[in-house]
Amino acid sequence: MTLLPDLPQNTVLLDLLREQGVPEERGTYAYEGWQLHTHPDLIERLEDLAPHWPVLATFGVPVLAAKGIAAVAARGTGILLVRLPEAPPELLEPAAPWAPLTDPGQGWYSVCPWQSGLRSADSQRELSLLVRHALTHAASLSKDADTDWQGRPVQGAPGKSSGKAKGRRPSKDQGSRQGGRGRRR
């Protein structure tokens, strides 16, 4: 089972992952019912790059998605796949490509998740920014205008009520506890 939705924007990635996926219920190499295709250290690295972001186990590969659209996937021991509108900054060391996902025009790029050419703090910062950019870009590919890039409801979305009750006036007593100005009488 996969938690990544079967959306048109995910088709190429899902096809590749489905092709390599091997069901495995139990064992050292099981990952949410599938044979693990990513080293546990890389899964931990992905979690560190996007703290508090849900990691979706997709056919044995951890994936980050925004609004249901895949943005980042971790594979093997040293491949971080990111979906971006342009190539990652040149200072980031690339990783081995994964055709056809990383073919020109697909919008996926392969970077090394360890960045040995950068200091540890710089590597963490640059890769975290890259992951955030990939998540924002993936969200922009969604047609869902009622949620933000993290999938939370947007306040004041078109056609939605602002949540304020109609016909009610604010209380005249706006002392300091309610955030009003001046002294209470």
UniProtKB/TrEMBL annotation:
Organism domain of life: Bacteria
Annotated region (Disordered), positions in chain: 141-185
Name of the protein in its database record: LysR substrate binding domain-containing protein
Species of provenance: Streptacidiphilus alkalitolerans
